[in-house]
Write a structure and sequence with these properties.
By secondary structure, the protein is an alpha+beta fold. The chain contains two helices and eight strands, in the order βββααβββββ. It starts with a strand and ends with a strand. It binds zinc ion (ZN).
């Protein structure tokens, strides 16, 4: 995915549209061993409810936790305002294999 180095964007500190420098940050991969991973699994409709939900035993960890590797990663862009030099994060990452700046 090709992105411009400078983008006009709304700055909540200057309260107007200013030029922002776009930089790419490394997005940290979610660990499958944290408590949060179970919460994410619940959101995906897995491991929901109390107890073992009538199942005899727990399913394999790979069935509901985030295991395995994805081909693409979500972008983690930071926008630095040129006027006040404050950085803002993007709202939502887009899946991309590679990010290039023009
Ligand atoms: Zn600003």
């Amino acid at each position: 995915m090709k992105l411009p180095k400078i983008k006009k964007r709304y700055c909540p500190y200057c309260k107007k549209h200013t030029e922002h420098k776009v930089t790419q940050n490394k997005r940290k991969a979610a660990s499958p061993l944290t408590y949060g991973s179970k919460i994410r699994a619940k959101r995906r409709g897995k491991a929901r409810g109390y107890g073992n939900l009538g199942r005899y035993s727990k399913p394999a960890v790979t069935k509901f936790k985030m295991t395995g590797k994805k081909q693409s990663k979500k972008t983690d862009l930071r926008y630095e305002c040129k006027e006040c030099k404050k950085t803002h994060m993007q709202k939502k990452g887009i899946r991309a294999k590679r990010v290039e700046f023009k």
